[in-house]
Amino acid sequence: MATATLEKRRSELETYFDRTAVDAWARLTSDAPVSRVRATVRAGRDRMRETLLDMLPRDLRGCRILDAGCGTGALAVEAARRGAKVVAIDLSHKLVQLAQERIPSDIQRGQIEFRVGDMFMPDLGRFNHVVAMDSLIHYRCEDVVSALCGLAARTEQSVVFTFAPGTPLLATMRAVGKLFPRGDRAPALEPVSEQRLRRQIVEASGLDGWQVGNTVRISSGFYKSQAMELLRG
After folding, report:
1. pTM value?
2. pLDDT of res. 189
């Protein structure tokens, strides 16, 4: 399922989050004070997490959920509170370790299984629902669709995910970012046209029987992301 560009970007993200960004993400995803810019990102991520959870059934008892790119585990915790059995996986060993340390006392033992690795690992099994919050925003449109095909192949009901919307602001930010040395910057976002994404989803043979449901764009300062759900027909 992984294309060459998916594999290359996967390696870049793994390096970034384990070697460079873990302290910043630990702070961003906590209650610690942050800069005004990062506060907008925190608020945007909170709204996006709520949006994705709203796309899932309120009662998740008896459901198996894959949190694909779980980060520090906030979404996995909320899904578990609704009764789901959650497999939460991330490329970053350090973020998964932090997520395990943050499991609240009201979550029953074994309700969340944290894993380090690729969301496409075959031994993860099958799921009722898959959630991929901001874990595909660094990929080109064709790679996003390839990833969705891989996730849909193991999913019974829905895949809810986010992509970086193809807005003029994001395109400008991406272009300006290329003018500066990479250093320890995060891998660039890949703005995706919603129209093009919808067309490629319809045309993808690996998504036969799936249809696009709701889509919601969240804009909060420097946080720009769009949620979309795929539903099995």
Report:
1. 0.90
2. 87
Distance CA 79, CA 10 (A): 25
| Longest pairwise C-alpha distance within the chain | 50
Burial track 64-84 (b if 16+ CB lie within 10 A, e otherwise): bbbbbbbbbbbbbbbbbebeb
Query: How are beta strands 223-232 and 155-163 bridged, if at all?
Result: antiparallel
Angle at 225 between CA 52 and CA 8, to 5 degrees: 100
Report the CATH fold assignment for 4-232: Rossmann fold (3.40.50)
Number of neighbours of residue 196 by Cβ within 10 angstroms = 13
β 64-68/223-232 pair status: unpaired
Domain range annotation of the chain: 4-232
Spatial CA neighbour of 31 closest among 67, 72, 70, 77 = 72
* CA pair distance 81, 100, nearest whole angstrom: 16
Question: What are the pLDDT digits (tens) for 154-198?
Answer: 999 999 999 999 865 555 555 444 433 444 456 678 999 999 999
